[in-house]
Specification:
The protein is of the alpha/beta class. The radius of gyration is 15 Å and the shape is globular. Mean pLDDT is 83; it is low at 133-139. Helix 3 (45-54) runs parallel beside helix 4. Helices cover 36% and strands 22% of the residues. Bound molecules: calcium ion (CA).
Length: 162
């Protein structure tokens, strides 16, 4: 097992949570704060984009199913001004297909219900991946899903599935 990043370093990492379900938002705020991240939570896409412009986050946890502007549009808009790592929260498998098909520019996704522990692991894995190219100029989606083989790869790197 890789050693955990000390809390003194994760406290510098700003995580923006955009999720309309109050119970999930509260859960994410509690668990990510406990993991040492600096967490901001908002309930819709417009508030999320405004928050991202005001205080640029390092990581955005973005629900796909949002009232008003949905998560897919929020991610696209975010990509026009932000290089933040984006992990999408999807409610159903078909939302994953949609994300892949649309190449929205997300770095990872996680399907509900998920464990906060798994989300934390995904965020840490994303943060370990160096951002070499400017994500705003990158039109190719690094997320590749082979449903037949049940394999997911990100930026050519195989990602273990639970
Ligand atoms: Ca939702």
């Amino acid at each position: 097992m890789a050693p955990e990043t000390p809390p003194s370093r994760t406290s510098e990492i700003a995580v923006l949570v955009i999720e309309d379900a109050p119970e999930i938002r509260a859960l994410l705020h509690t668990t990510l704060s406990a993991d040492g991240f600096r967490v901001t939570c908002v309930g819709d896409g417009e508030a999320g984009l405004a928050a991202a412009r005001t205080a640029p986050p390092d990581v955005v946890v973005l629900d796909v199913g949002l009232p008003g502007i949905d998560g897919v549009e929020v991610c696209r808009d975010l990509r026009t001004f932000s290089n933040a790592y984006v992990v999408m929260l999807t409610a159903r498998d078909d939302e994953v297909d949609k994300l892949v098909g649309l190449s929205v520019g997300a770095d990872d996704y996680i399907t509900k219900p998920f464990s906060p522990r798994e989300l934390n692991a995904r965020i840490r894995a994303m943060l370990r991946r160096p951002r070499t190219a400017d994500a705003r100029a990158d039109n190719s989606d690094p997320l590749r899903i082979d449903r037949e083989a049940r394999e997911v790869s990100l930026a050519g790197e195989a990602t273990p599935l639970t």
